[in-house]
Amino acid sequence: MEDTEFEKRKKMADRLKEELNLSDRVYNAMLKVPRHLFVPYNYRDSAYLDTPLPIGKGQTISAPHMVAIMCELLDLREGHKVLEIGTGRGYHSAIVAEIVGKSGKVITIERVPELAEHAKQTLSSLGYDNVVVIVGDGSKGYEAEAPYDRIYATASAPKIPEPLIDQLKKGGKLVIPVGNYMQELIVVEKNDEIKTKVWGAVRFVPLFGEYGF
């Protein structure tokens, strides 16, 4: 008998928990969010494979392991206000929304209106009323809701955009891929000084906009 969507999702989450030593809060979010509802219908059979998938307009949904890793690097907590650069169809937004809870808030920016609309509809239908989807240039951040406890980008920038650092709270963290052909995932911590460290090599779609490519 074929596995149900929940059974497939549980196998994926269990595997990631073992391989990445996931925290309970990230594991529980991966277990709860129905990834198959965030991918185009013709890719739903592949929704719980640990791979990126096309979502249209030249964009992709990140592999589940990368979503989980970024959430762990961000050290998300209940009540955090989070800015996401690159909504796609909203899967990563939903994972973060689960972790920060109803007392938290996710502002997510997408430059492609059609993708933003898909994300908005799916997130709304699943009850994620703590996520606000904005159409715009995410490379500039979103000043209207700043400052943020956490910021992350799902597309690779040529360098770390200054507005994102400016819009981060003191004590906040930013996770962003940087580079063109050779990309690295960078973790930024903002205190009295700005500290950066490289997590490792990654592969993301390019970030477009004023501070992108």
From TrEMBL:
Keyword Cytoplasm in record: yes
Entry's localization field: Cytoplasm
Biological processes annotated in GO: methylation; protein repair
EC number: 2.1.1.77
The organism's place on the tree of life at top rank: Archaea
Active site: S62
Catalyzed chemical reaction(s): [protein]-L-isoaspartate + S-adenosyl-L-methionine = [protein]-L-isoaspartate alpha-methyl ester + S-adenosyl-L-homocysteine
Leader sequence residues: none
Keyword entries, A-Z: Cytoplasm, Methyltransferase, S-adenosyl-L-methionine, Transferase
GO molecular function: protein-L-isoaspartate (D-aspartate) O-methyltransferase activity
Family from the record: Belongs to the methyltransferase superfamily. L-isoaspartyl/D-aspartyl protein methyltransferase family.
Name of the protein: Protein-L-isoaspartate O-methyltransferase
Annotated source species: Archaeoglobus sulfaticallidus PM70-1
Gene: pcm
